[in-house]
Amino acid sequence: MAYGDRNTVERAINLLKQNRMVATRYDKRAATFDVTVQVASIRSWLRDLTRSKNRA
Fold it and tell me: How far apart are CA 40 and CA 43, in angstroms?
C-alpha cells in the first residue's frame, strides 16, 4: 500500500470504530465480527450517501 493512502485507510477505520460493537468487539467469533464490520460499513456508506443527496 502506498504511504499516500494511509490517511484514507485510517479515516475509514476511525469511522468504523465509531460503532460501539466494532470498537469493543463483543463477538468472540470471527465470522460474526466480520458481519458486524460489514453492517457498520454499510451504515456509514448509506449515511454519507444521504448526506450527499441532501446537499445537491
Answer: 5
| Lowest mean pLDDT, pick from 10-14, 25-29, 52-56 | 52-56
Tell me how far apart the alpha carbons of residues 41 and 52 are, in angstroms, rounded to a whole number.
17
Could you tell me which residues come within 8 angstroms of residue 44 by beta carbon, excluding any fewer than 6 positions away? 15, 16
Of 16, 7, 8, 14, the residue nearest 40 (C-alpha): 16
CB 55 within 8 Å of CB 36:
no
For 49, half-sphere exposure in the C-beta direction (CA atoms, 13 angstrom radius) is 6
**What is the model's pTM?**
0.69
pLDDT at 32 over 80: yes
pLDDT at 38 over 90: yes
Cell of 32: 460474526
